[in-house]
């Protein structure tokens, strides 16, 4: 629920505001508030518990596409890496007997890049284009501005380095994804 630094209630409202700006209705936002899944960049979450939550949600909403982090978690954040682990084939295998993967559901992994590439914004396009990947997603200028406005809704998390991220990160413009 985003309760790092005891800001859970503030972060829930920020998420709702951000999703609304992106056209995502509140009814499509699911928050998980579980003591074994704390919002903490140093804590690895329980793979089976997390996989069960995610698979249950996929089954309940008949979801056919999941986008998540790769093994690097884009920023090395332990919670992000835990999502990859839970959604990898090993994690799903633990929970699939209870919540089988919806037929036709695909998983795309957002590829982590090194620090140099992460902060060269649109200049990373030729590199991303030449490297192997299943999907190369490039935002228009309008989409990039919308994404930045949505990120700014999370004011409790906008520390100095996230302002740099908003200005220079390739992820605000370019996203390389790999099928799991």
From TrEMBL:
InterPro entries: GlcNAc_PI_deacetylase-related, LmbE-like_dom_sf. It is an enzyme of class 3 (hydrolase). Coiled coil: none annotated. This is N-acetylglucosaminylphosphatidylinositol deacetylase. Its EC number is 3.5.1.89. GO terms for biological process: GPI anchor biosynthetic process. GO terms for cellular component: endoplasmic reticulum; membrane. Belongs to the PIGL family. The gene is Pigl. It comes from Psilopogon haemacephalus (coppersmith barbet). GO terms for molecular function: N-acetylglucosaminylphosphatidylinositol deacetylase activity.
């Amino acid at each position: 629920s985003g309760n790092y630094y005891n800001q859970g209630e503030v972060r829930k409202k920020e998420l709702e505001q951000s999703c609304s700006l992106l056209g995502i209705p509140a009814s499509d936002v699911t928050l998980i508030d579980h003591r074994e899944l704390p919002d903490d960049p140093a804590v690895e979450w329980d793979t089976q518990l997390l996989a069960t939550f995610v698979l249950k949600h996929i089954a309940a909403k008949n979801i056919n596409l999941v986008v998540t982090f790769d093994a690097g978690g884009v920023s090395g954040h332990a919670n992000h890496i835990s999502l990859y682990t839970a959604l990898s084939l090993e994690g799903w295998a633990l929970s699939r007997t209870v919540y089988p993967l919806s037929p036709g559901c695909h998983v795309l992994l957002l590829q982590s890049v090194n620090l140099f590439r992460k902060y060269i914004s649109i200049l990373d396009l030729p590199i991303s284009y030449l490297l192997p990947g299943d999907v190369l997603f490039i935002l228009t200028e309008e989409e990039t501005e919308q994404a930045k406005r949505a990120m700014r809704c999370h004011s409790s998390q906008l520390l100095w380095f996230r302002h740099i991220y908003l200005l220079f990160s390739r992820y605000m413009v370019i996203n390389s994804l790999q099928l799991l």
